[in-house]
Amino acid sequence: MGEARKILGERKVYVDWRVVTDYKFPVGLMDVIYLKDAEEYYRVLPHSTKFFMLHRISEKEAELKPLRIKRKVTVKGGRLQFTFHDGKTLLLRDAADAELKVLRTYDTVLMNIRSKTVEGYIKLDVGALAYVIDGRNVGFVGRVESIQQILKRAKAVTAVRNEEGEVVRTILDYVFAIGAEKPVISLPSTEEVKLWEEILSKPPLL
Description:
Low-confidence stretches: none
CATH superfamily of the largest domain: Ribosomal protein S4, central domain
Structural class: mainly beta
CATH architecture of the largest domain: Beta Barrel
Number of strands: 15
Strand content: 35-45%
Mean pLDDT: 91
Largest sheet: 5 strands, antiparallel
Distance between the termini: 12 Å
CATH class of the largest domain: Mainly Beta
Shape: globular
Helix content: under 10%
Radius of gyration: 18 Å
Strand order of the largest sheet: 2-1-3-4-5
């Protein structure tokens, strides 16, 4: 803990391109971590048994962050505002952001977190590539095959099929769209996932 606080105090750790000095600062899904002296970049991704893992990415990819829309509201002046899964907000401009107005909750906005500009979006519809981020199938990646809504949209039964043909069913609230034809972020290899699981299973050094 002493070493970690010393490194943070030297302003060598960035989360989403902002310096973090508080050792209690929470890091969550899709966050980008930059270690300055090491020149290493990581993205926080779901893991099948450990729930979260760090996936090493390039500097270019570290500028991008998929943000899932958690809430869509109309604010003063009749403008739309999105609140994302990590707490960030986006107030839409009338002309420049006109195409974003069609987005709904659970759709994804691809944000350049370095320049604070929108670089695209992904609709969470049938055919979209998605990550399962919670529940018994957390960490599963595949293409949305069906969405069956009975009552609340958040509880809609969603089927996701991977490249091997395996199908899992979960609720829409546990599904995060990451691409249309191909993923907008790099994905960890099977070996990387297993290595991360092995690292976390080892007892801490005393």
